[in-house]
Amino acid sequence: MYPSFAFPACLRLLVIWLVHVSRLSCDACPSPGGDTPRSGEELTWAVHLNPPHGPETAEALDALADELSQSSGLENRGVIGELKDHYLFAYVGDARCHGDARRKAHTLFTEHGHVRWYSEQKLLKRSKRSLHFNDPKYPQQWHLHNSDSPGMDINVTGVWERNVTGVGVTVVVVDDGVQHTIQDIQPNYSPEGSYDLNSNDPDPMPHPDGGSDNHHGTRCAGEIAAVSNNSFCAVGVAYGSRIAGIRVLDGPLTDSMEAIAFNKHYQINDIYSCSWGPDDDGRTVDGPHQLGKAALQHGVIAGRKGFGSIFVVASGNGGQYNDNCNYDGYANSIYTVTIGNGTLLLRRFNIFYVTSDWDLQKGTGCTEGHTGTSAAAPIAAGMIALMLQVRPCLTWRDVQHIVVFTAIRYEDNFAAWETNGAGFSHSHQHGFGLLNAWKLTNAAKVWESVPYLASYGSPAFKEKRSIPLVPGRLELNWNVTSSDLQLSGMKTLEHVAVTVTITHPRRGSLEIRLFCPSGISSLIGARRSIDMDPSGYMDWTFSTVRCWGESAEGVYKLLVTDSGDLSGGVLNQWQLTLYGSSWTPMEVAERRRLVEDAQGGQYLNSNFSLPCPPGLQISEQEQYTITSNTLRVRCVCVILCYTVLYCVILCVCVILCYTVCVCYTVCVCVLYCVCDCVILCVLYTVCVLYCVCVILCYTVLYCVCDCVILCVCVILCVCVCYTVCVTVLYCVCYTVVCVILCVCYTVCVTVLYCVCVILWV
Ligand SMILES: *[C@@H]1O[C@H](CO)[C@@H](O)[C@H](O)[C@H]1NC(C)=O
Ligand SMILES: *[C@@H]1O[C@H](CO)[C@@H](O)[C@H](O)[C@H]1NC(C)=O
Ligand SMILES: *[C@@H]1O[C@H](CO)[C@@H](O)[C@H](O)[C@H]1NC(C)=O
Ligand SMILES: *[C@@H]1O[C@H](CO)[C@@H](O)[C@H](O)[C@H]1NC(C)=O
Ligand SMILES: *[C@@H]1O[C@H](CO)[C@@H](O)[C@H](O)[C@H]1NC(C)=O
Ligand SMILES: *[C@@H]1O[C@H](CO)[C@@H](O)[C@H](O)[C@H]1NC(C)=O
Ligand SMILES: [Ca+2]
Ligand SMILES: [Ca+2]
After folding, report:
1. What is the 3-state secondary structure (H, E, C) of 387-428?
2. Is residue 68 classed as helix, strand or coil in its secondary structure?
């Protein structure tokens, strides 16, 4: 059997209210019908006094006013401004009896000899009207104004009336995206503070997705900063603030993506609203890993000009599994403000919040079905935005302190409240209690920064002590002495943390308690019946805020019990870490008084303001962390770079090569040409020479030949000629000879004949 309420001890606050209607009866003084004033209104009269005989001195008037006050039973509120003979009288009593009081006062003032004139003061209709919003769902936003059960809302309307609406403050919703185009968000949307880590672009617009509907971030954004009086949907808690979105939950989430989200635009974004965390299924023990932790720490040191980013996280909805926000490292971190909704209450009253919604898939831009602690964290973020408008230089620790100092203890059947040594009430169920915007802003107005964060770490005790089964228990002590604290100057506590390494075959059966020196105990590790994990706790840090404001000096006790049936648990190591400041317990008490005194609203009403240091100029540095996305981007970058480089190199190479080639070619060409030329020349010359020679030779030869031929020809010719000549000559000669011979013959013959004939004859 486990105790029914094994709940966390972290800085958890409630933002929930009962909606139960309890009408007051009015039997003492029956109301004179019709004119029943609403609670909160006060009956006051301005009275012009006619001083008694003698000098008209202030003393005489005061005495007269006091006398009137006594005889009428009304409270004398003193002179009205500079009107020295006008006094304000108020009826302080049951609102149900106003009718009666009004009649009595009327009779008294009319009959009194020294009252020259009187008038009942009406509430300024002007300021009343200013809060009549025309947003259709505003009447259903019970968490903003709850006239049925006053005290169960965040009491924000009075803050708005004083023009505190979050102006100048930016809240960022770290979630699955923010649809910034819908009417109720668009005018307040801050693109400068936004980013999309899932797609790595500056626009956190949610992606419509059949399986998991990505409307969560948009709804949270609406709760914080939905535009007021625009005739659409609802009104945000800090409707004057700017709202940004970081889309990170729509896809695989890595440690480094978380780290980037926690520091994204941290000089623009003041408050990070994270309505998510590890599975609160009653068995998970997880939290921010190395980078996430470092980012939270870096955020509170360097964010918001060095005043520190405010991280608001939901404590998870795991209450029904006996879960404990100490198993959630976000809720457990000293850098966060953790908001819970109080499982039991919400389950009983089935409360839904009205807020903006996306309209990407069937949505209308407005919903009435937003529930859970994820609905509570953004409301708290909105309230912190109101505080930061009032006093922009509050540090992250100032915000935590103010929350602790002003949370209202809330009684129900389930909460076991304990008051610690500094007078703060805390319950494991409801943390410090309900947040109240009025109290927060009034306290913020007069809040001067707490001293520096001081811390003390004990040595790491290597115990190796076995954890006995119940009724046995393992008890470990450490005495923190004043000399231990001297170095840091710590006097009072804020967070107290214990880091343990425990091996156990079934860690859900362990219960771990821490006792502060004052004796108050914190259940830092509750039994979780369904946590069967056999690996125990490896360097897990549990923390508590139950010792807030107490003196840091004294003996701390760690108590481990094992109520399971598997023995064998061993506590290997433990270490105590204290966080606090140099405030003395007296100074804490003094500050509590100051905050209490400011609750009348007198500082919020006036122009009063404490000086604020300007803060540091810190530039937003880009973080060199790797996520699957950045990896992807980086890959693309690398590929691109390589491509470009490659191209460039290629180009250069090509150009070089080309140049070289050209040069080479040119050279070669030139050389070749030259060579060619030379060769050509030589060749030519040779050729020419050769030719010439040849020609010459030939010519000569030819000539010679020719000559020879000629000669031969000539000779031949001559021969022929000769022959011809000879022939001709011969012929001629022959002919001539012949002729001559013939003739001679003939002549001789003839002569002979003739001679013969003559002789004969
Ligand atoms: C809201 O708008 C109406 C006009 O539509 C105006 O009369 C009213 O004063 C406005 N309320 C506030 C709070 O500004
Ligand atoms: C709520 O706010 C009003 C001012 O609007 C203030 O007078 C009242 O005291 C506040 N109530 C609580 C419980 O803080
Ligand atoms: C609030 O602001 C409005 C407009 O700026 C101004 O008229 C009004 O007087 C302010 N009210 C207070 C209480 O400061
Ligand atoms: C918060 O409210 C939701 C919705 O009613 C409920 O289911 C859940 O158990 C609650 N969680 C816590 C831790 O209060
Ligand atoms: C703790 O240490 C202080 C200083 O040494 C000593 O005075 C005190 O008695 C110790 N307390 C216990 C319980 O040992
Ligand atoms: C507030 O400041 C304004 C201008 O700075 C001034 O006019 C006004 O009188 C001041 N009001 C009060 C109550 O001091
Ligand atoms: Ca995008
Ligand atoms: Ca609206």
Report:
1. HHHHCCCCCHHHHHHHHHHHCECCCCCCCCEEECCCCCEEEC
2. helix
Residue 216 catalytic?
Answer: yes
Q: What pLDDT score was predicted for residue 675? A: 65
Predicted confidence (pLDDT) per residue in 175-227, tens digit: 999 999 999 999 999 999 999 999 999 999 999 876 657 888 999 999 999 99
102 pocket-lining for ligand 3 (C-beta < 6 Å):
no
In this predicted structure, what is the pLDDT of residue 492?
97
The DSSP annotation for 648-664 comes to: HHHHHHHHHHHHHHHHH
Pocket test for ligand 6, best of 602, 607, 608, 609 (most atoms within 8 A of CB): 607
Q: Mark whether 175 is an active-site residue.
A: yes
- 3-class SS of residue 35: coil
CATH architecture group of domain 37-120: 2-Layer Sandwich (3.30)
Would you call 286 a catalytic residue per the annotation? Answer: no
**pLDDT score for 20:** 31
CA of 599, closest atom in ligand 2 = 9
Nearest residue (by CA) to ligand 3, atom 2, is 163
CA atoms within 13 A on the CB side of 555: 6
CA distance 398 to 448: 8
CB-defined site of ligand 2, < 6 Å: 151, 155, 158, 436, 438-439
Please tell me what DSSP assigns to residue 459.
P
Residue corresponding to tokens 């800090």: 238
Is the CATH code 3.90.1570.30 the one for domain 138-394? no
For 520-555, what is each residue's pLDDT tens digit? Answer: 999 888 888 888 888 888 988 888 999 999 999 999
Ligand 5 nearest atom to the CA of residue 555, by list position: 13
- More confident site: 651 or 244: 244
Rounded-to-integer distance, Cα 292 and Cα 289, Å: 5
Q: Judge whether residue 641 has pLDDT over 90.
A: no
Confidence class for position 124, pLDDT limits 50, 70, 90: very low
Mean confidence (pLDDT) of the chain: 80
CA of 387 to the centre of ligand 6 (A): 21
Q: What is the pLDDT of residue 597?
A: 93
Q: Pinpoint the alpha helices (H) of 598-627.
A: 602-605
| pLDDT tens-place string over residues 18-65 | 333 222 233 344 444 334 444 456 778 888 887 766 666 778 888 888
- Taking residues 119-148, report their average pLDDT: 70
Q: pLDDT-derived band of residue 518, with 50, 70 and 90 as boundaries?
A: very high
Which residue's CA lies nearest to atom 2 of ligand 6?
Answer: 607
Give the distance from CA 701 to its chain's centroid: 107
Name the segment(s) of the chain with CATH classification 2.60.120.260: 452-579
Percent with pLDDT over 70 in the chain = 75
How many Cβ atoms from other residues are within 10 Å of residue 278's Cβ? 17
CA–CA distance from 374 to each of 11, 99, 197 (Å)? 16, 45, 21
CA atoms within 13 A on the CB side of 699: 7
Q: What are the structure tokens assigned to 45, written together? A: 């009269």
Give the CA angle between residues 512, 513, 516 to the nearest 5°: 150
Architecture of domain 452-579: Sandwich (2.60)
How far apart, in whole angstroms, are the C-alpha atoms of residue 159 and residue 169?
Answer: 15
Measured CA to CA, the distance from residue 239 to residue 160 in angstroms comes to 9
pLDDT band at residue 716 using 50, 70 and 90 as cut-offs: confident
Range(s) of the chain covered by CATH 3.30.70? 37-120
Ligand 2 pocket test target in 155, 436, 440 with most atoms within 8 Å of CB: 155
- Distance, CA of 165 to CA of 224 (rounded, Å): 10
Q: Kindly tell me the burial class for residue 632, based on how many C-beta atoms sit within 10 Å of its own C-beta (0-12, 13-18, 19 or more).
A: exposed
CA distance 225 to 182: 12
Residue ranges lining ligand 6, Cβ < 6 Å: 606-607
Pinpoint the residues of the chain covered by CATH 3.40.50.200. Answer: 138-394
